[in-house]
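job 3f2a | input accepted
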Amino acid sequence: MIVHGNHQYFGSNRPLFPLFFLPAICVLVMIGVMLIQDLSNTTFYHWGIFPRTSKGLRGILFAPFIHGSWSHLVSNAVPLLLMGFGVFYYFSDTGYKVFFWLAFSNGLWVWSFARASYHVGASGMVYGLAVFLVLSAMLKRNRNLLFFSLVVIFLYGGMVWGVFPVDPKISWESHLMGAMAGAIMAYWYRKEGVVKETIVWDEELELSVEEQDDTEENQQTPNESTQMDSKQPQIRVVYHFKKEDGNN
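job 3f2a | predicted structure (248 res):
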């Protein structure tokens, strides 16, 4: 069995801080906005996305940083850090592109198709990153990325219900649009980042090994042959010749 693939991301000595840089900056801005809201006793929800209005267009940029409560912020900030790290770790060359296009496409689609209400929060980005990582792992079949995606599924697998309109207070449109954007980005960047691993069976190699085993079994060294012969019972054949009578 021969495994072809790129394992340079596993056990590498790259510094971790740059991998968290952009997600951490986003989370810090979210916290700053939330603190301003609390200290000023106001809210910035009107800076969110309001679909199909010129005023609501600014929400494409600002909505991910605005949250309605601290619990809302934490529920988005933690997975954003984890999945953002995964994107920049396994897609070091295209991580910024993935991050940007997920945020932009999610915001634009929410503005285009969502309900006529204010949509705020980074949950669309979280859904986009989660779907991007899981589908990328499936497309590439890379063991390390598969393991990371399994961790994501284990921790946040319940998010799948968020794409359905089960609660009118939740922007399920942001979740759905984010998931769709993540799927498209996974396919678009399927040839980027970690290399796809394939398992190839070398039939010629296996055949040569089997032939070698058969040859070793059939061949015996002189010592082994001598030892086996020595264990066989010794049979002696004695011939007696009788001289014929001359009168016959």
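job 3f2a | Confidence is low (pLDDT under 50) at residues 1-11, 198-202.
job 3f2a | closed
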